[in-house]
Amino acid sequence: MRCKICGEKPVIYMKHHRLALCGKDFISWFERYTERTIKEFRMFKKEDKILVAVSGGKDSLALWYVLSKLGYKADGLYIDLGIGEYSRTSYEKVKGMAEKIGRKLIVKKLSEDVLPLPDLINLSGREACSLCGVLKRYNFNKVAVEYGYSVVATGHNLDDEASSLLANVINWNVKYLGKKEPVLKEEEGFVRKVKPLCKFMEKETALYCLLNDIDFIEEECPFSEDASTIFYKHILNDIEERFPGTKMRFYLEYVKKIKPLFEKVIKGKTPELKRCNICGQPSPSDICPVCKLKERVLK
Ligand code: AMP
Ligand code: ZN
After folding, report:
1. Parallel, antiparallel, or unpaired for β 192-194 and 151-153?
2. What is the pLDDT of residue 225?
3. How far is it, in rounded angstroms, from Cα 247 to Cα 264?
4. Atom 3 (ligand 1): residue with closest C-alpha?
5. Which residue, judged by its Cα, is nearest atom 15 of ligand 1?
6. pLDDT of res. 268
7. Which pLDDT does position 273 carry in this prediction?
8. Is 264 left (phi over 0), alpha (psi -120 to 50) or beta?
9. Burial 211-235 (b: 16+ CB within 10 A, else e)
10. Hey, whose CA ends up nearest to atom 10 of ligand 1?
11. What is the CB neighbour count within 10 angstroms for residue 124?
12. Deepest of 75, 147, 210, 228, by most Cβ within 10 A of its Cβ?
């Protein structure tokens, strides 16, 4: 097999694209493909102020790097969850990238706002990943609004998106099926949320990091015991191995053809959003779930 562009020895063969590429041509393909995805879903323009949520993992670091290389005005936001050594190492990786590309990094410490995540898990008795997800999404939006960013970009890749879609389909979580997409449009109190890497497989973002000397954290979060996500990813990989291209089709056909149907179903069923009396963020009730949690645990 040879690189399709230059004929040199390839570093990757992407079955679903029927494309073999050498390192240099993979990097430029990855960047063109990201740009194309941004345009395809009308995610943002060169003049938009973008806030990239960076965890220190391969996907979000690759995203921040590629957006800055493509000339977008993209700053970083790191939420320090206060998970001991894991959070310290993640922060070092994120800081390393901010220095590499010379962009601003905003750090939000959960411990300064409420308490570190491990304490919150103990006190609230809630499941770690769901609690963490709520706090992260809340802070992505809050910080973006406070600092005047119009878009928040996250590093979700095709494996993340297709596996959570599969989980939601298997369980018929109709509420989520109307929401999963590469772009969540801005609405009253919410900035736009985008996923520019949603058409890349995990191994492609990992290779992009490797080829660009991007130092990312490889350890999994010590609280992430969400075995079901890993299980669904394995199943999709098995299907993909047998029928290349299925993962991409499953996700994109859903986004283009199926999701609009679910949107109609959930329209009118979602409660009107008010503003939280304490923090001012959009909320289904007078006090938002995060402020309620804060009040409860700080008592
Ligand atoms: P996860 O929920 O861990 O699968 O992460 C999904 C995306 O959320 C990542 O690609 C990042 O863009 C973002 N993210 C996760 N954890 C953090 C964090 N601690 N700080 C900022 N962004 C994060
Ligand atoms: Zn609130």
Report:
1. parallel
2. 65
3. 25
4. 55
5. 55
6. 63
7. 87
8. alpha
9. ebebebbeeebebeeeeebeebbee
10. 155
11. 13
12. 75
For residue 154 the two structure tokens come to 């996250």
Q: What's the CA gap between 261 and 4, in Å, rounded?
A: 39
Q: What pLDDT is recorded for position 242?
A: 96
Beta partners for residue 52, in sequence order? 76, 153
- For 48-86, write each residue's pLDDT tens digit: 999 999 999 999 999 999 999 999 999 999 999 999 999
The pLDDT value recorded for residue 226 is 67
The alpha carbon of 277 and the centre of ligand 2 are apart by a number of angstroms equal to 7
What does the alpha-carbon distance between residue 265 and residue 259 come to, in Å, rounded to a whole number? Answer: 10
- Residue 154 CA: which ligand 1 atom is closest? 12
Residue 12: what pLDDT? Answer: 98
Q: What is the DSSP letter of 187?
A: B
Name the strand (E) or helix (H) holding 291.
Answer: helix 289-298
Core vs surface per residue 42-71: b (16+ CB within 10 A) or e: ebbeeeebbbbbbbbbbbbbbbbbbbbeee
Q: Which ligand is nearest to the CA of 105?
A: 1
Span 42-211+226-267 CATH architecture: 3-Layer(aba) Sandwich (3.40)
**Distance in angstroms (rounded) separating the CA atoms of residues 139 and 281:** 10
Tell me, in angstroms, the distance from the centre of ligand 2 to residue 75's CA: 25
Query: Mean pLDDT for each 10-residue chunk of the chain (299 residues)?
Result: 96 97 98 98 97 98 98 98 96 98 97 90 87 94 97 97 93 82 92 98 98 95 80 96 97 92 72 90 94 87
Tokens 């390839």 locate to 10
Q: Where are the chain's structural domains?
A: 42-211+226-267
* β pairing state of 183-184 and 192-194: antiparallel
Index of the ligand 1 atom closest to the CA of residue 53: 22
Token match 């609009």: residue?
Answer: 260
What is the helix, strand, coil percentage profile of the chain, to 5? 55, 15, 35
